Amino acid sequence: MLNYTIRRLLFAIPTLLVISFIIFAILDLAPSDPTGNLPLTIPPEVREKIRLSLGLGEPFPIRYLKWLQQFFINEPLNLIEQWFGVSIGDSENRLRVQSWATRSPVVDLIVERMPQTLWVVGMSYVVGILIAIPIGVISAYKQYSVFDQVGTFISMVGFSVPTFFTGLVMIVIFSSTLGWLPSIYDTTHKVTDLASFWFQVKQMIMPVMVLALFNASQLSRFMRASMLDNLSQDYVRTARAKGLKERAVLLIHVLRNSLIPVVTVIALGIPQIFGGAIITEQIFRVNGLGQLLIIGIQGADIPLVQTLTFIFAVLIVLFNLVADIVYGILDPRIRYE
After folding, report:
1. How far apart are the first and last CA of the chain?
2. Cα dihedral 72→73→78→79 (10° resolution)
3. From the centroid of its chain, how far is CA 194?
4. 3-state class of 166 per DSSP?
5. What is the Cα Rg of the chain in Å?
6. Which of 22, 25, 47, 175 could share a disulfide with 183, CB 3.0–4.6 Å?
7. Which residues pair with 98 in a beta bridge?
8. Is pLDDT of 93 > 60?
């Protein structure tokens, strides 16, 4: 397993380099001008100086190599210094990926917004998994029952209806009509006592449940299909013939094998949910990575969009590896030699 993990990590390096080149090239070729939002009274020569100060006067290969150095070397070194207080090299003159709009380091903006996204997106994914797995197991075990039919209907609705519509419906019902929950997520709120903790819970309920419903709808269908496939296997009949209790057969033998394909969906869905939460964050005004990406796109802030997009790509490659490793943990028959 260790050798396989090392090989996969080494293979991920050229993969990420190719992905980074494609992302950088596509966004660099986009018809965007960092001086486009400046007042028209600024002379053309001043605009050209601003473009040169942003590094746009250099050839494409040079800009790409500088971006690689800033992202893979300078930014990790800077994070190490901030988190552990260890100074490595000349930190004052170290080039960093700068936002065109704010002239602030892009990684600092991402680190600032990350907690809000993790609170909402991370919690919604956990809730979605906790809802989907029991529903999938029960629906498969009681196939064609009332529970199965109701679960199938709700999952189809939850997966078909877009999150922006679900979010607006929840705002109209629970915020505008009933007045139970706040419609806007207050990112400046701090939990200091029981009352502030309860307010934090209330403002998280709607965005978390909107994303959790969407995630659970998809995962429960995969869980049900995988359970049905394993329930008809010979080892299940053998376990029952040996006199094992039905709960032990279901939860120990069938569930463990059924989780193997579902793990892939769960692992690969983690990076996707960060992208899918962009709309939900806009609806509930969550000041997270989704809103940061929208601001970068609207303001033609290419370094910000490049960095965020590449981080999503890194997450996809990383969780592909995590899914393969979990395979071996769930199924002892799988060996990576």
Report:
1. 7
2. 40
3. 30
4. helix
5. 24
6. 175
7. 105
8. yes
Q: Where are the alpha helices (DSSP H) in 89-193?
A: 106-117, 123-141, 146-160, 163-170
The burial class, CB within 10 Å (0-12 / 13-18 / 19+), for 272 is: middle
Which two structure tokens, joined as six digits, stand for 248? 């032990």
Residue 318 structure tokens:
């990383």
- Contact status, residue 310 vs residue 128, Cβ threshold 8 Å: no
Q: What 8-state DSSP symbol labels residue 105?
A: B
Helical H runs in 142-254?
Answer: 146-160, 163-170, 194-231, 234-241, 246-248
Domains of the chain, residue spans: 15-84, 109-330
Those residues whose C-beta lies under 8 Å from the C-beta of residue 216, and which sit 6 or more positions away, are 127, 128, 129, 131, 132, 135, 155, 158
Average pLDDT of the residues of the chain: 80
Can you name the CATH fold of 109-330?
MetI-like fold (1.10.3720)
**CA separation for the pair 128, 118 (Å, rounded):** 14
> 103 in helix, strand or coil?
coil
Q: How far apart are CA 314 and CA 75, in angstroms?
A: 15
- Residue 316 CA to residue 102 CA, distance in Å, equals 28
- pLDDT confidence bin for 248, thresholds 50/70/90: confident
Angle between helices 106-117 and 302-330 (to 10 degrees): 50
The β-bridge partners of 105 are 98
What is the per-residue pLDDT for 183? 81
Q: Is the dihedral of CA 303, 305, 308, 312 positive or negative?
A: negative
Residue among 49, 280, 258, 75 nearest 165 (CA):
280
Tokens of 50: 């601003």
Phi, psi of 98 (to 5 degrees): -105, 140
Q: What is Dmax (Cα atoms) for the chain?
A: 86
